[in-house]
Design goal:
- The chain is 30% helix and 18% strand.
- By secondary structure, it is α/β, with parallel strands linked by helices.
- It has one domain: Aldolase class I (TIM Barrel).
- The strands form 2 sheets. The protein has an 8-stranded mixed beta sheet, with helices on one face.
- A hairpin with a 2-residue loop joins strand 1 and strand 2.
- The structure holds iron/sulfur cluster.
């Protein structure tokens, strides 16, 4: 999806007819039976994960979430389809469990702020339902649309926004994440969220090749965010699907992003960003 398509929709637009083609991605609507899923694996520090959409139109080359798609066809076409869980709000409202103090990670296998979210407001409606129920929320996104929901996020007793920014290089970002919002838009959005007084973090997960680690650290610091997470590129993760793995590995080789260069870049970031954590520790709920 082209970057400017992020701005195509307004919340006042009528509901779309499905299937809907947006750039390279096809959207359909599917009913869901549950919207809060017991967290497990890498997310097991949380009580629940919340994925308002299935699939992801951002289609990052290194995305491990593709592995969890329900069919080989869905894995092979990862990045080109999105399913909207259109009854998610009803399902959440019917969920009678006491959610007070429960930790929720949104989202683990999609980005909650898909471009269509600007028009649908699905995430926003879920936030409005969750805020008074005492949930402790972490939002993980690459999208500036999150800034739209600052007001609702402010109604939570505890809500943190994690913005993923993987590199300082537009060239690298376009190669690994051709359909994602630009770094500039992500940094502007998280600056706005931090300025509103919400807890924030910038997650460099994975950290991709950097042009200038020192000035990158300065740029990150200037957002007002003070918590940072870095994680290596999981190129050797056995669960990657072959296509994704090959594409990301090839880019990694072409850009000569070696383990040594990664460690050297992290050392520079660590020297300038005292709040830097590594890997899973950085994702734990507060
Ligand atoms: S935004 Fe997240 S879920 Fe979507 S393709 Fe990229 S890494 Fe995967």
């Amino acid at each position: 999806m082209a970057e400017d398509q992020l701005d195509l929709f307004a919340s006042s637009d009528p509901p779309p007819d499905y299937p809907l083609t947006l750039g390279h991605a096809t959207l359909t609507a599917v009913p869901t039976r549950s919207i809060l899923t017991r967290a497990s694996g890498f997310m097991s520090d949380y009580d629940y994960t919340l994925n308002p959409y299935s699939g992801c139109s951002y289609g990052c080359t290194y995305c491990y979430a593709a592995f969890f798609a329900r069919s080989e066809e869905r894995r092979d076409t990862w990045g080109r389809w999105v399913e909207v869980k259109e009854n998610a709000l009803d399902v959440l409202r019917r969920m009678r469990s006491d959610l007070r103090g429960k930790t929720v990670y949104m989202s683990s296998v999609t980005d909650p702020y898909q471009p269509i979210e600007r028009r649908l407001g699905l995430v926003r409606s879920l936030l409005e339902e969750l805020a008074p129920r005492g949930v402790r929320l972490v939002v993980q996104t690459r999208s500036p649309i999150v800034a739209r929901d600052i007001d609702v996020l402010g109604r939570f007793g505890a809500a943190r926004v994690n913005m993923t920014v993987t590199t300082d290089s537009d060239r690298v970002q376009r190669a690994f994440e051709p359909h994602c919002p630009t770094n500039q838009k992500r940094l502007a959005a998280i600056t706005e969220v931090a300025a509103a007084g919400l807890p924030t973090a910038i997650t460099m997960t994975p950290l991709l090749p950097l042009e200038d680690p020192e000035s990158f650290a300065t740029e990150l610091h200037s957002t007002g965010v003070r918590d940072f997470v870095v994680q290596p590129f999981h190129a050797d993760r056995g669960k990657f699907i072959a296509g994704t793995r090959d594409a990301a590995l090839q880019l990694e080789r072409e850009m000569d992003w070696t383990a040594e260069r990664y460690r050297a870049a992290v050392a520079v970031l660590r020297s300038q960003l005292p709040g830097l954590k590594e890997g899973r520790e950085g994702f734990a709920p507060e």
